Amino acid sequence: MKILITESIADESVKYLKDRGYEVEEYLGHTQEEIEEHIKGFDALIIRSATKVGEPLLANADCLKAVGRAGTGIDNIDVKACTEHGIIALNTPTANNIAAGELAVGLAFCVFRNICDANEGVHTGDFRRGNWTGYELEGKTVGIIGLGRIGSIVARKLKGIGMNAIAYDPYIPAEKFDRLGVRRCQTLDELLMEADLITLHTPKTKETYNMIAKEQLYKCKRGVRIVNAARGGLINEQDLADALAEGQVAAAAIDVFDKEPSYNRKPGEQEFDNVLIHAPHCYITPHLGASTVEATAKVGQGIVELVDGALKGELVAAINMPQFSGSMEEIKPYCSLAEKIGRMYFQAENMPIKKVEVRYRGELAENSGTSIITLSLMMGLLKGMGNDHVSYVNAAENIEECGIEVVETKTDSIQKYNNLINVVFFTEDGRELKINGTVFGPDTEVIVSFFGYEMNCPLSSTVLAIKNNDVPGVIGRIATILGKHNINIASMHWGRKNQDGSDNPHAQAFVAVEQAVSKDIIDELSAAEGVLRVSLLELE
Ligand code: NAD
Ligand code: MLT
Prior knowledge:
The protein is of the alpha/beta class. It contains 17 helices and 22 strands. The strands form four sheets. The protein has a seven-stranded parallel beta sheet, with helices on both faces. Strands 14-13-15-16-17-18 form a six-stranded mixed beta sheet.
């Protein structure tokens, strides 16, 4: 498989992909149009903040399965369009928090202590330190807009040097403000009017774009200082330049522009300008927030592992999948079990279905990740229907297109098993076919009921589901046929029905085998005396 990297990531991360057999092309320093042309034939794309993944790129992406953003912000990815194209969108939302938080703190010192101007002066022979007298941060008030991951780090660090911290973030609970010892501002205006330093840490969205413009700048204290190491465009660049020139804002430090330059080209290789580059007391860094050795290694490794997992069809935390608060590792075995149950249906039964009910029982019912387990079941069902392009991001849409309704229900009542997935397939001819499964220990997937037969069968990749008359000799005949064709039986499990005096006792066998079973062998088994039905369940 082929992976295109359009913005640089750590060499070890590139090597990680090559070592796993991927054909990797580092296509750095190219224009957006060139990237859009070049994307054809690639299975995955790895980007940072400059490459835009939207309809123009996706329209040309003939086999793209995953887009990996080595970093936090996803404002350069049209996530909805990715979902529509069935493309998994990934990022590494925590890997560079510390680096970005530390840069914001560094820029805070820069706007109070004239460090950059003094450095420049010294290098031109000017040692008159009186020109660069600054202000102390201790005792001043920092106003943090956006108290998420990075905003919280900045709060912790600036409080550590004695600043009073206030914040505006309408989306997080009061408890978090209390925990961080940050006073909550009910409105943005309240923050603007009180802060000596304003630092922005929100994502770039329709709501936050230009959230600080002329009107807001003039609500601030005269001589306010501003840091933006979040996203360009949160502050109106022209309005900030004017306010700096006029003295309303004493100094600003900016790590990000609304329209970003290429960060790989040498001086003279691109034409780039921005009004803030010419504004007085405006200190600019070239999107350096995540540029530490530690963060580069973490985002690079984080994203290549996710992309590798996504390309292998594994469950990975994607942006365009239901978000949940629990641990992915905890639900993985249940996802794998659910996918196998989904795959089983059309291998064991021909009748179309109109509805599937997935019922979670026991502790599992409390898990916030059940919607992802349900998606796994849908994926299995669709794969069983021959859909090779289904992924976690388009499974729900594809199932809906097939006209199958999927409902999820939960009950915490425990019967025999601590955790149980109960799946009911409602067939078009009015039957309700049930498959129930659970996970023993860390990851042993077990079917405990199949189409009405109670059993206890650990799953493997290839299983023969054999329905037979429950009379002496049938097992022997099945084993003899398989043995004759050199097929090793790994395990055999039975569920039985009607044994109590009925004249029609029958059983459902699950025979795990270790070699491929051809159609001729299935036919031979089906024709054996006492065998009623044979289905080959290929579960991986
Ligand atoms: P986060 O999602 O953890 O936090 C963002 C916070 O902003 C959330 O708590 C959210 O509730 C809040 N928010 C959203 N809309 C708001 C609004 N209108 N007013 C006030 N608050 C609002 O994100 P994060 O990981 O902390 O990242 C913060 C920003 O930093 C993002 O824009 C990210 O792209 C950027 N970033 C920049 C660099 C860099 O190199 N400069 C590095 C990493 C992240
Ligand atoms: C991010 O969102 O992670 C940052 O912008 C860092 C980057 O990608 O350069």
